[in-house]
Design a protein that fits this description.
The protein is α+β, with helices and mostly antiparallel strands and about 375 residues long. Strand 15 and strand 16 form a beta hairpin. The protein is about 25% helix and about 25% strand. The protein folds into 3 domains: about 200 residues, Sandwich (Jelly Rolls); about 50 residues, no CATH class; about 90 residues, 50S ribosomal protein L16 arginine hydroxylase, Chain A, Domain 2 (Malonyl-Coenzyme A Acyl Carrier Protein, domain 2, 3-Layer(aba) Sandwich), CATH 3.40.366. Helix 4 packs across helix 6. Bound molecules: succinic acid (SIN) and cobalt (II) ion. Cobalt (II) ion binds next to loops.
Length: about 375
């Protein structure tokens, strides 16, 4: 399923990035013409019954008491007809049509996107006014919801109506609109927002990831340790006599900093680290490992069938780096790529389904065969 193009109206991706991205919220009415939910509500409920899929139900009673229940759920009947919302993370990892909602946002690199969270809300359902640390695009699916979005405001107080529910006090909305199927809301980080359902409604949230500096440093340190790379010791062959034996001098500090930075400046190492780090999925993926390993002969056998498709698993995160060596990253795994395999690696990174003929045209080169069998054996691609 391919989703219709994003109808930017007066805007364009360039203007959006310059004027709104990480700066101010935006509502584009009818950004997607004739938008249809990419997953029916009963299928969404089915995903929330799976242990490996993260889901929660947020409900509020008439007295304003909030409740949060975590999946997997067995039964939804206790929640009644109103005042609750079901939120399911990374639905794009399980629903290919939902994964296709990422296509219109490809003007931002894939590594920056985390997942598509889908919520089903009954009348008056929502999670309350809150802030998120990440950018989000919310596509309104079926039903109507009242969305309010405000500006960052340090005066807002943090509320904890339930240990698992962080909310903020009432805010002055910049946007206060009723969203309908196909409307697109953009909310930058730390902008208070509140979506209250008017009727049964479905929202698709394309959530972004932005690593914190401590996450990056700590993962980089893990990378050094795992690969035994940080073992070289500081040396100071040009040392001069100090007149203050208790001082860590500016020159020493600079030399130590430069010593540490040397590793960060190692482009090959940095690319390995960042490619693995940024393509690692934060949610379970449906990896489809073949029962028996696929080697070159087996692949040739498979290719004798004309009608098959080579498919990537839904929600896979892929990226290519090419500053030091060309590398394809899939879900935190790295595949070194020879120049002649770059066209195939690019197709794999774009995650287009490949036909028998396409694969055959690549399979005459040994490096391509190795790449194809590796991604199949790892379960990132499968044969349909
Ligand atoms: C939703 O309820 O669909 C989105 C929740 C949010 O605002 O993050
Ligand atoms: Co939010």
């Amino acid at each position: 399923m391919t989703i219709a193009a994003l109808n930017w109206g007066e805007l364009s991706p360039e203007k959006f990035l310059a004027e709104y991205w990480q700066k101010k919220p935006l509502l584009i009415k009818q950004a997607f013409k004739n938008f249809k939910d990419t997953i029916p509500a009963d299928e969404l409920a089915g995903l929330a019954m799976e242990a490996e899929i993260e889901s929660r139900i947020v409900s509020v009673d008439n007295k304003g008491n909030w409740q949060v229940d975590h999946g997997p759920f067995e039964d939804f009947s206790q929640y009644g007809e109103e005042n609750w919302t079901l939120l399911v993370q990374a639905v794009n990892n399980w629903s290919r049509p939902t994964n296709s909602l990422l296509q219109p946002f490809a003007f931002i690199p894939r590594w920056r996107i985390d997942d598509v969270m889908v919520s089903f809300s009954t009348p008056n359902g929502g999670v309350g006014a809150h802030l998120d640390q990440y950018d989000v695009f919310i596509i309104q699916g079926s039903g109507k919801r009242r969305w309010q979005v405000g500006a960052p405001n340090k005066a807002l107080s943090t509320l904890l109506p339930h240990p698992d529910l962080k909310q903020v006090s009432a805010f002055e909305p910049l946007i206060d609109e009723i969203t309908e199927a196909g409307d697109l809301l953009y909310i930058p980080p730390n902008h208070p927002h509140n979506g209250v359902s008017i009727e049964n409604s479905v929202n698709f949230s394309i959530g972004f990831q932005a690593p914190s500096s401590q996450e990056l440093w700590s993962s980089f340190a893990d990378k050094l340790i795992d690969n035994n790379l940080g073992e070289l010791r500081f040396s100071d062959t040009a040392r001069k006599v100090t007149d203050s034996s208790t001082l860590i001098s500016k020159a020493d500090q600079q030399q130590l900093k430069a010593f540490m930075l040397e590793q960060l400046e190692d482009t090959a190492l940095f690319e390995q680290f960042i490619g693995q780090y940024l393509t690692q999925s934060h949610h379970a993926l449906e990896l489809l490992m073949p029962v028996n390993e696929i080697d070159a002969d087996k692949l040739a056998d498979i290719l004798s069938e004309p009608e098959i498709l080579f498919m990537p698993v839904s929600g896979l995160k892929a990226a290519i780096t090419s500053e030091a060596e060309i590398t394809l990253f899939l879900n935190g795994d790295s595949f070194p790529i020879d120049k002649q395999s770059l066209p195939l690696a690019e197709l794999l990174a774009e995650q287009s389904p490949l036909t028998t003929n396409q694969v055959k045209s690549f399979n005459s080169c040994l490096k391509n065969t190795q790449l194809l069998t590796s991604v199949l054996n790892k379960g990132y691609w499968y044969i349909e």
